[in-house]
Specification:
The structure holds 2 protein chains of 2 kinds. Chain A is mainly beta. Chain B starts with a strand and ends with a strand. Classes of the chains: A mainly beta, B mainly beta.
Chain lengths: ~110, ~120
């Protein structure tokens, strides 16, 4: 089955840029989606199809995907961005159609 | 407004059964793939099962195959997850989720229902 690998944690100071990676075999050939989850809440989609943003998501959130790594970039990080972030792909090559990364805890210092 | 409201969670003994429900509103339920996604305490998201719009296709994560059954009733705008032979490792918050039409991502999530498997 397809595996997505994320760093367990990323720390960044307010106002700086956070980059959260998601590694997978030839992930650049897939559409990658990113979710934000705050404690006690359901996940929220922040980037879909590698780099598109749903309505209501700030432009500070952006994404890219190439080769074996997809990246979620959060510019001008704010305290309210502190959360867990998950990448996700649809793996049509197996019965495991939905695959999530292990998640990355973003800490705003 | 799209709403997904789960119910049916609770405490169950190992080997027991539980049926989760998800009441959908605010959209044409029969037009969407639906999913169950779970999250064990302090852990990440894990996809559990998917079901096609008409129920003709169902997919499961290996760890629940043969024990869990996803189903839907489009007339009642409801999604279900029948969970049998429950194990301690099935303890999690279970989310009902809608896949946006024509895409591969979830655009709406319920608030989740907690299932605890313990003696």
């Amino acid at each position: 089955s397809y595996v997505l690998t994320q760093p367990p944690s990323v720390s960044v100071a307010p106002g700086q840029t956070a980059r959260i990676t998601c590694g997978g075999n030839n992930i650049g050939s897939k559409s990658v989606h990113w979710y934000q989850q705050k404690p006690g809440q359901a996940p929220v989609l922040v980037v879909y199809d590698d780099s598109d943003r749903p309505s209501g998501i700030p432009e500070r959130f952006s994404g890219s995907n190439s080769g074996n790594t997809a990246t979620l970039t959060i510019s001008r990080v704010e305290a309210g961005d502190e959360a867990d972030y998950y990448c996700q792909v649809w793996d049509s090559s197996s019965d495991h159609l939905v695959v999530f990364g292990g998640g990355t805890k973003l800490t705003v210092l | 407004e799209v709403q997904l409201v789960e119910s049916g969670g609770g405490l169950v003994q190992p080997g027991g059964s539980l049926r989760l429900s998800c009441a959908a509103s605010g959209f044409t339920f029969s037009s969407y793939w639906m999913s169950w996604v779970r999250q064990a305490p302090g852990k990440g998201l894990e996809w559990v099962a998917n079901i096609k719009q008409d129920g003709s296709e169902k997919y499961y994560v290996d760890s629940v195959k043969g024990r869990f059954t996803i189903s839907r009733d489009n007339a009642k705008n409801s999604l279900y997850l029948q969970m049998n032979s429950l194990r301690a490792e099935d303890t999690a918050v279970y989310y009902c989720a809608r896949r946006r039409a024509g895409t591969t991502f979830v655009d709406y999530w319920g608030q989740g229902t907690l299932v605890t498997v313990s003696s």
